[in-house]
Amino acid sequence: MSTLTVAIIIVFVIGYLCIALETLTKVNKAAVALLMLVVCWTLYMFDPGNFPAGILPDAVAAAAGSVIEGHLGSTATTLFFLMGAMTIVETVDQYGGFNFVRDMLKTKSKRALLWRITIMTFFLSAILDNMTTAIVMVMILRKLIDDRRDRLIYASLIIIAANSGGAFSPIGDVTTIMLWNKSLVTAAGVIKELFVPSLVSIVVPAYILSFSLKGNVSADTDAGTVSMGSGLTEFQRKAVFWTGVGGLVFVPIFKSITHLPPFVGILLVLGVLWLVTELFYRSHPEHDENIQKRVSNIISRIDMSTILFFLGILMAVACLQEIGVLSIVGQGLNEIFDGNHYLITGIIGVLSSIVDNVPLVAGCMGMYPMADAGDMAQDGIFWQLLAYCAGVGGSMLIIGSAAGVVVMGLEKITFGWYMKRITWIAFIGYVAGILVYWIEKAVLGL
């Protein structure tokens, strides 16, 4: 291993620590990830060992550029999918598409509300992403619950349910999107085989937490929903909702029919939704006060720092893959755990509660190549468990997932409170889900 290869590893580790400690350093992780990308690939460029022997100095730049562009093309498919999905969800939200969720949660019983929130969050996060679902549910929760102690319990359950719901859906979590985008798992495969384990991973914590809630809700749950004032008719707002949400559900179907990458399907849905809203607004004045609700303006408000973070971290991990470090680590883990993929992915899931699960999964994708048959084949045990563990495992600490970090900020939940009250409950659900998956494979032979 050359000096420059070691330097790349050191840069990545330092950057990784800065990302994991974002809440302490107060430095946006996107900035760190972009610097990691640049420094890692710059060091790669000046290491002769990364290029074929005898290559002329004038040809090094072209060879390195070709490698980088290849990885960038692969990374871009994930980024375009995320940008499209974020724009669609934001558009639906702007037109009051999620008001129906609040109506469905109306109840006086605290325990009944707990189960309704759990089920609604679980299924919503399978269609939306877990971070967006967490935001929507916490905003609604504030209208329903006045008592802060109870609201913290509900908010914690939203984190677990959002992560569990995203794990069994090809579009519900960034890590699952990455695996699906690389054809390591199929939409039908993860839904069929991870649905029950994911459901168990939230039902168990919800059952335990239900004993912490007694009596009735004191807040006024009958308050009316807020009108979004989009300037559109009720029919048009419903059309926007069904086009957006229905389109998200259609994306896996589109991929199975056309065999095109998932980002093509999401761009199709975005294009249709954009066209529909433009047709609705074509008769409105050019300077209409609702102009901000048009897709062309909504796009400018999507979270670009998140997109740039994914760009930086995925490209930095790609550099580690290119220099052969990830394959060495993968071989080492296989030797230590004797190829037991339940243990390997289980540990990865625990780690995902400490550090960001995106680079973890990206690293695993580089460490382990897809095989034609066995655990490492498409929809094999390893890849499906990786989708489950990386998604659900992030619930064990409040900083372990995007949903957790968002709720932490919205409800001011402390790291210590969550670790003391919720971590052990989330861990029980996590292990229960893995056990159910093992039963599916080893006992039932699914």
Note the main attributes of this structure.
single chain; 446 residues; mainly alpha; 21 helices
Helix-strand string: HHHHHHHHHHHHHHHHHHHHH
Q: In which range does the helix fraction lie? A: over 70%
Give the tally of β-strands. 0
Q: What composes the largest sheet? A: none
> How many helix segments?
21
Shape: globular
Can you give the mean pLDDT? 82
Low-pLDDT parts are: 221-228
- Indicate the structural class: mainly alpha
Distance between the termini: 43 Å
Measured on Cα atoms, how large is the radius of gyration?
23 Å
Strand content range: under 5%
What would you say this structure looks like, in words?
- This protein is mainly alpha-helical and 446 residues long.
- The chain is 72% helix and 0% strand.
- It is built from 21 helices and no strands.
- Residues 221-228 have low confidence and may be disordered.
Précis, in short:
This protein has helices spanning 3-20, 22-25, 29-45, 57-94, 99-104, 110-127, 130-144, 148-167, 174-181, 187-210, 234-258, 262-281, 295-298, 304-322, 325-336, 341-351, 357-367, 381-392, 402-411, 415-421, 423-443. It is mostly helical and 446 residues long.
